[in-house]
Amino acid sequence: MTTGTPHLTGTGVWSGELRYGDPAHAADSAAELEALGFSALWVPDVGGDVFGAVGNLLAATSTVTVATGTRRASASIRS
């Protein structure tokens, strides 16, 4: 029975280029990453239309999970 919960296993890739880069290149890269066996593509959710970028990656792939993530700016600052 399918519960609607995504199956999150395997290895993923986080890439700003998949979100902010040329959409055609991002789609080609997503398809190649999927063919190499990566199961998730993470993109930043900072500024602009994230749904367009996510839709582009989903259209180029058939099995990967596409997810967004953010990072607090203060987490990058070292005291």
Structure description:
With 79 residues, the protein is α/β, with parallel strands linked by helices. It is 35% helix and 16% strand. It contains 3 helices and 3 strands; from the N terminus they run βααβαβ. The chain has a 3-stranded parallel beta sheet with strand order 1-2-3. The relative contact order is 0.23.
Major sheet strand order? 1-2-3
Q: For the record, give the distance between the C-alpha atoms at the N and C termini, rounded to a whole number.
A: 50 Å
Order of helices and strands: EHHEHE
* Poorly predicted tracts of residues: none
Categorize the overall geometry.
globular
User: Roughly how many Å is the radius of gyration?
Assistant: 14 Å
Mean pLDDT: 85
What's the short story on this structure?
The protein is α/β, with parallel strands linked by helices and 79 residues long. The protein has helices spanning 17-20, 23-35, 50-60; strands spanning 12-14, 40-44, 65-69. It is globular, with a radius of gyration of 14 Å.
How would you describe this structure in keywords?
single chain; 79 residues; alpha/beta; three-stranded parallel β-sheet; 35% helix; globular
Secondary structure layout:
Layout lengths: L11 E3 L2 H4 L2 H13 L4 E5 L5 H11 L4 E5 L10
Parallel strand pairs: 1-2, 2-3
Helix pairs in contact: 2-3
